[in-house]
Amino acid sequence: MARRIVSFLPSATEMACALGLGDQLLGVTHECDYPPEVRDKPIVVRSVLPIERMSQREIDTAVTERLRNGLGLYQVDESLIQDIAPDLILTQDLCQVCAPSGNEVAQLLSTLPSKPQILWLTPKSLEQIFDNLRELGEATGRLQRAGDLIATSRARLEKIAAATRQISRQPRVFCMEWVDPVYCSGHWVPEMVLIAGGRDELGRVGSDSIRIPWRDVLQWAPEVLIVMPCGCDLESAVSHGRQLFEYPSWSDLPAVQNNRVYAVDANSYFARPGPRIIKGTELLAHLIHPALFEWNGPQGTHGTAHLALFGPAIWEKYQLAKLTDGKFQSNTLVAEQKGAAADQKDYENPEGVFSPHDNSIPELQQRGVVFLACHNAIWELAEKLIATEVNPDELSHDALAAELTNHLIGGVVLTPGMGGTLPELQRGGFNYANSG
């Protein structure tokens, strides 16, 4: 039975912890961040590319070039692994981009005095993810616990499928696994969409995600478009998704016209074939059929920036400071103050004239900045306030959202959603300022 485990995969790390193997997990990758306690474990694998400083186009080009030249994308700390002396290594041979694969593992094994068991986790479907979980349970003496987790996961998926089988029509969905260039989804993701009551005919069931022409997306005309760049959390997905505003005929897509473009946390719910894939399917069901499915996962889809668009009275009444994770005790951004001097044309510079640094909202408005409030974000805020019992007047969801809307600071423009609004403003001559 394995007692010293090294994981080369974030999904394998999550599986191991779900089976109660956290204490036996002695080495992880630089990408392993869930559950939070694994972040302090020794890192045995790192990326050779500085992807945190690269655009999606640069990452795609660099990855393609290295793979074409037979070069790996990861650096394995052989010395540290020798010190750990693992008896079980969790790795994969599905995707050379996702983690160390066959060649790197073979090279590592040649340096180890004693050969550990290698568990290859190479799923292409939801069923194969369950198979991997069962195999890990068998290798570590946790087979019963793995079986229980699989049974619970199946029941949650069946609950969704039973509801969506009653739906007369499945909306057209497109899950975008990379923005620049555009990639469709692959492997288990189209299966998740189908269970959630949608159709993604651009996705490749059980096969690799591939690059596709933008015209294919326009022809498919998705009614729901989900931006889920592989390797990205929610914040990164939102950042990369801004490029879509520049794509030809973006605003002609039904998903854009109906404010049904969503950025999601791909790392947590879609890209990693581990236990949270089930939660990802529940999220898809909510996004595709919001009237039928609630979302009980983490809130804050719209972040906290919109809180700055409410005045002091609303901040005090609804205790908005508690939603900023201690960053603000009051809305200091509405206080009049002289902004930093800079080139007016330097609107894309995060430290420039339109930066929030050393600026105030009134000062920025005087310089021509238009602040947009998103109706969807206000609706979500009202939902959160009710859920946390910060609703002193005991208003209904509709009434509380209306109360918040009526108390936006002066000059703010209310929009149904940002996905369709920003490209229309750009066509009208406005520019999108990068706020860092």
> Distance between termini?
49 Å
Instruction: Give the helix tally.
Output: 17
Helix content: 25-40%
Largest beta-sheet details: 6 strands, mixed
Structurally, the number of domains stands at: 3
Query: Structural class of the secondary structure composition?
Result: alpha/beta
Number of strands: 13
What is the N-to-C succession of helices and strands? EHEEHEHEHEHHEEHEHEHHEHHHHEHHEH
Strand order of the largest sheet: 4-3-2-1-5-6
| Low-pLDDT runs | none
Question: What gross morphology would you assign?
Answer: globular
Rg: 24 Å
Mean pLDDT across the residues is 84
Share in β-strands: 5-15%
Q: How would you explain this protein's 3D organization?
A:
α5 packs antiparallel against α6. The chain starts with a strand and ends in a 9-residue tail after the last helix. The strands form 4 sheets. Strands 4-3-2-1-5-6 form a 6-stranded mixed sheet, sandwiched between helices. It has helices at 10-18, 56-68, 78-84, 102-109, 126-140, 143-164, 189-195, 214-220, 234-241, 254-257, 266-269, 277-288, 312-317, 361-366, 375-387, 397-406, 418-427; strands at residues 5-7, 25-29, 43-47, 74-76, 88-91, 117-120, 173-176, 186-187, 204-205, 224-227, 261-263, 372-374, 413-415. It has 436 residues and is of the alpha/beta class. The protein is 37% helix and 10% strand. The model has no long low-confidence stretch (mean pLDDT 84).
